[in-house]
Design goal:
Strand order of the largest sheet: 2-1-3
Structural class: alpha+beta
Oligomer: single chain
Number of strands: 5
Order of helices and strands: HEEEEE
Helix content: 10-25%
Distance between the termini: 31 Å
Number of domains: 1
Strand content: 25-35%
Shape: elongated
Number of helices: 1
Largest sheet: 3 strands, antiparallel
């Protein structure tokens, strides 16, 4: 799926759902886009993001991490 949005808006949306953006790369050169850049001429972006560890808890029975909101 392709979604047309701005670099700044996509960063905002990721943060809104609790994801931490680790890096953004442009589609034309593959170069990393600096965190303070708000606009780019790239056709699309590749975002690397993750849910912070604090959002997970360890299931004591299995020893596996699971969402902190799951029961």
């Amino acid at each position: 799926m392709i979604v047309y949005t701005t670099l700044g808006e996509q960063r905002r949306q990721l943060a809104e759902v609790g994801l931490q953006c680790d890096a953004v790369f442009d589609s034309c050169t593959g170069n990393r886009i600096a965190d303070d850049v708000q606009e780019s001429d790239a056709w699309w972006f590749h975002f690397i993001a993750h849910k912070p560890l604090a959002a997970y808890r360890v299931d004591e029975e299995s020893g596996h991490a699971r969402s902190g909101t799951a029961d």
